[in-house]
Amino acid sequence: VTHVALGSGEEFDFIRGLVARWGERARGIGDDAAILSLGRGDRLLASVDAAVEGTHFRADWMSPREIGYRAVAAALSDLAAMAARPAGVLIALGLPPAWRERMADLADGIADAVTAADTVVRGGNVSAASELSITTTVLGTAFSPLTRDAARAGDCVYVTGVLGAPGAALRRASLGEAMGEYRARFVHPVPRLLESRWLAERGAAAAIDVSDGLAADVGHLAAASGVAVAIERARIRCVPGVLADDALISGEEYELVVAARSPLDTDAFERRFELPLTQIGNVIDGPAGAVLIDGQRVANAGGHDHLSR
Amino acid sequence: VTHVALGSGEEFDFIRGLVARWGERARGIGDDAAILSLGRGDRLLASVDAAVEGTHFRADWMSPREIGYRAVAAALSDLAAMAARPAGVLIALGLPPAWRERMADLADGIADAVTAADTVVRGGNVSAASELSITTTVLGTAFSPLTRDAARAGDCVYVTGVLGAPGAALRRASLGEAMGEYRARFVHPVPRLLESRWLAERGAAAAIDVSDGLAADVGHLAAASGVAVAIERARIRCVPGVLADDALISGEEYELVVAARSPLDTDAFERRFELPLTQIGNVIDGPAGAVLIDGQRVANAGGHDHLSR
Predict the structure, then answer these.
(1) How are strands ordered across the β-sheet holding A121-128?
(2) In angstroms, what CA-CA distances link B102 with B66, B105, B116, B181?
């Protein structure tokens, strides 16, 4: 049983309620900071990601449980991008009064994401706020983390999964239409944690997750590595009804892009994970950060910009 | 020079500007997650703390630089409470449009706190939001972290510093008055990082920082340890013009409370840090979490509740 010994007061009662709901999926809550022991030789990976109502999601698009799941799954994807094993998350909630009564569902969604990633909540913070925000710090460990800056000319470039659904879902929602067949992928992204470790063990050298859109994130990888990347449009696997040009700018996919010196065994990957792994192009010599699609350079890869509102 | 190779887009330009301003005080920004190596045998300490405009501070009480400093200093105090050495911070900003032009000052304040703690910014996140929020994740290392749950009956209980100024400053500000001589301590709290490691090395067994108010935080320590604590009111060192009863509920002090089996050398502490270390009472057998002041049990220790608004 999780040890909880907090003091008195409304905030503590609230946190106690959360921790009780999380049960075994919360660990070591109650001190000023969480304490973690790392394996010898392991390095620590740490990242923070925020989901803010009105900026990253609208509350009428998703259930509270889906909102909680999606916020934490998106943050965990940053560990997947580096082939790290999750070691825990810290959850900072900005909570408007109207959200208090939906907290149990939000907490269940957070637990769904934590459980799916085989990790635990190690700590957090709750503050009153005028809009709901879930700021998730993810902690992970890796002996040899994948980074964005290790792609080299000649590498093969792969992407996991089938793209386009989140972008199509968002487009429909912003027009006031139902998300329909695209909804499931939008509300339930899956951080590719096991997939990335499999890929790292088999020769992937550099990786990034698709959060801003395939073209934009390939551009980030290329910029960090000081190389260019050439993609063939026809190779991009899209969900039915979505064109490759739209899939290229569909954000919040949380699929992985990896670059590998030698070809990867895509069949073995697909058998293991029941998920496509597709070579979409190659790393080439060229201006750092350039993305060429069918030989034509993309001026501005586009994708999401969370400062726009 | 810090390596920065981010992609294009407004958000990246903004982050690039921040990182450039931080210079050497930002490290390894640009990947999905920060990578840290820990010393052998060291454990990782991690905590998250939010400062939300309207809940934790009002923008007309402090300069942007003071707001940035104070948010990060408060978060670092959680590492001080556990006698950990800072290993880096992650900064998640919720940024209203009106705050963009004040970002340079806010960033300088964040840098002030990071520099004072001899640490670096390892990563972060920027999101549009309707109110300013600074959510700081602190990472630290410790071989033997201090915890709240290790106080035992018979321990001596100490507090660092002179209490009461933040509470007095807040009271004046909420009445629309100038904070006057109490302002400096309110806007510039000092996480007691070196002090806590000194205390841990010399026999402190349990610790907590004073964020909710001395009485409340002693109560949290007592609750976590399953003991009671008896305090003598006359022993509490207060800033001029503040009564002990007000100092007992003054929050956001970020001084340390420690419990030690044997008396600590308060003179040596004061010589080393030019800061008082005062025995205010003892741990006693009694109801878990009870705080007695001059023998009388405090019903509800009070202090801050960041869910009230």
Answers:
(1) A121-128, A85-95, A133-142, A43-52, B34-36
(2) 12, 6, 22, 26
Do the Cβ atoms of A133 and B129 come within 8 Å? yes
Q: What beta strand segments (E) does A56-188 contain?
A: 85-95, 121-128, 133-142, 156-160
- Across the interface, which of B82, B305, B306 has its CB nearest the CB of A31? B82
Interface test with A, best of B14, B31, B79, B139 (most A CBs within 10 A): B31
The three-class DSSP label of residue B165 is helix
Angle at A187 between CA A249 and CA A91, to 5 degrees: 105
The answer to whether the CB of B256 falls within 8 A of the CB of B308 is: no
The mean predicted confidence, pLDDT, of chain A is 92
- A253 in Cβ contact with A132 (< 8 Å): no
Cβ separation A133–B94 shorter than 8 A: yes
Does residue B39 surpass a pLDDT of 60?
A: yes
CB spacing of B94 vs A95 below 8 angstroms:
no
Residue A40: how many CB atoms within 10 A of its CB? 8
Chain B residues touching residue A208 (CB < 8 angstroms): 32
Helices A10-22 & A103-116 angle (0-180, nearest 10) = 40
Q: Lowest-confidence range among A13-27, A96-110, A126-140, A142-156?
A: A13-27
| Cα nearest neighbour of A77 on chain B | B32
Q: How far apart are CA B112 and CA B99, in angstroms?
A: 19
| Distance of residue B14 Cα from the nearest chain A Cα, in angstroms | 9
Angstrom distance (rounded) from CA B131 to CA A51: 14
Instruction: Answer whether B33 sits within 8 Å of A126, measured CB to CB.
Output: no
User: SS in 3 state form for A23-42?
Assistant: HHHECCECECCEEECCCCCC
Q: What is the mean pLDDT of chain B?
A: 92
SS3 (DSSP) at B273? helix
Tokens 């060429």 sit on residue: A292
Residues of B with CB below 8 A from A127's CB? 50, 52, 55-56, 133, 306-307
- Cα distances from B42 to residues A105, B104, B142, in angstroms, run 37, 35, 5
Q: What is the pTM of this model?
A: 0.93
Q: Would you call B125 and A50 a contact, using CB atoms and an 8 Å cutoff?
A: yes
Distance (Å, whole) CA A183 – CA B81? 45
CB-based burial of residue B60 (10 Å sphere; 0-12 exposed, 13-18 middle, 19+ buried)? exposed
